[in-house]
Amino acid sequence: MPDVEGSERSLPNIVITGTPGTGKSTHAQLLVDASPVPLRHLNVSEIAKEKKLYENYDEEWQTYIVDEDKVLDELEPLTDAGGLVIDWHTCDVFPERWVDLVVVLRCDHTLLWDRLEKRGYSLKKIQENNESEIMQTVLDDAKESYAEEIVVELRSDSTEDLESNVDRIVSWIQNWRRDRGFSDQP
Ligand SMILES: Nc1ncnc2c1ncn2[C@@H]1O[C@H](COP(=O)(O)OP(=O)(O)O)[C@@H](O)[C@H]1O
C-alpha cells in the first residue's frame, strides 16, 4: 500500500463504487455501523440531489446529470480529516490524493436485473446498467484511475458476501491505521 503523498489523515478515505444496484449504499451503511473508528457515509447521488449539484434532469434516462465539479467542491473540505465512505457509481472523478481504497462491488447480472426491477427502473435503464455490469465498466474505470494496489473487487450477490466484505474492509482499516502508528480505537 503506497503512502499518499502529503496525507496526514488518521482515517482512510474509501470509495465504494459499482453499477447501480450492486450494493454500495448497503455496504457503506453497514461499514459505518460496524467500524470501531468513526466513518461518514457520503451518498453522492443523495447529496447532489439535496444540494442541487446537478446540471439538469434527464427525462429520457430518468436521472439527474450531476455536476462533477460541484460535487468535488462540496467534498474537498471533508477529505483532509479522512474517514469518508464515498458511495457513488462514478469513481474516476476523485483525485488520487483523496483516496486510500477503492472497493468495486460486482453482482451477478440476473440478480442485478431483479434488484433494479424492484427499484422501479425503466426497462431501458435496467438494460443499460445490466450491460454495464457485464462489461465491468466501473471496474475498468477504477483500474484506469487508481493504483492497482488500492482497487479491490468484491462480490455482492448474497448477504454472506455483504457480511464478509464489511468484515474485510474493517480489518483493512485497522491495518491501515496500525501501519501508520494509530491505535485500533478512535
Ligand atoms: N450483497 C447483497 N446481498 C443481497 N442483497 C443485496 C446485497 N447488496 C445489496 N442488496 C440489495 O440490493 C438492493 C440495492 O442495494 P443498494 O445498496 O441500494 O445498491 P446501490 O447503492 O449500489 O445502488 C437493496 O435492496 C439491497 O438490500
TrEMBL record:
Localisation: Cytoplasm; Nucleus
Gene Ontology terms, MF aspect: AMP kinase activity; ATP binding; ATP hydrolysis activity
Region (NMPbind): 43-66
Chief localisation class: cytoplasm
UniProt-annotated stretches for the region LID: 118-128
Catalytic activity field: ATP + H2O = ADP + phosphate + H(+); AMP + ATP = 2 ADP
Positions of the UniProt region annotated as Disordered: 1-23
GO CC annotations on file: cytoplasm; nucleus
GO terms under biological process: ribosomal small subunit biogenesis; rRNA processing
Positions contributing to ATP binding: 21, 23-26, 119
EC number: 2.7.4.3
Keywords (A to Z) from UniProt: ATP-binding, Cytoplasm, Kinase, Nucleotide-binding, Nucleus, Ribosome biogenesis, rRNA processing, Transferase
InterPro entries linked to this entry: Adenyl_kinase_AK6, P-loop_NTPase
Quaternary structure (record): Interacts with small ribosomal subunit protein uS11. Not a structural component of 43S pre-ribosomes, but transiently interacts with them by binding to uS11.
Family: Belongs to the adenylate kinase family. AK6 subfamily.
Biological function: Broad-specificity nucleoside monophosphate (NMP) kinase that catalyzes the reversible transfer of the terminal phosphate group between nucleoside triphosphates and monophosphates. Has also ATPase activity. Involved in the late cytoplasmic maturation steps of the 40S ribosomal particles, specifically 18S rRNA maturation. While NMP activity is not required for ribosome maturation, ATPase activity is. Associates transiently with small ribosomal subunit protein uS11. ATP hydrolysis breaks the interaction with uS11.
Protein name per the record: Adenylate kinase isoenzyme 6 homolog
Lineage: Eukaryota, Fungi, Dikarya, Basidiomycota, Agaricomycotina
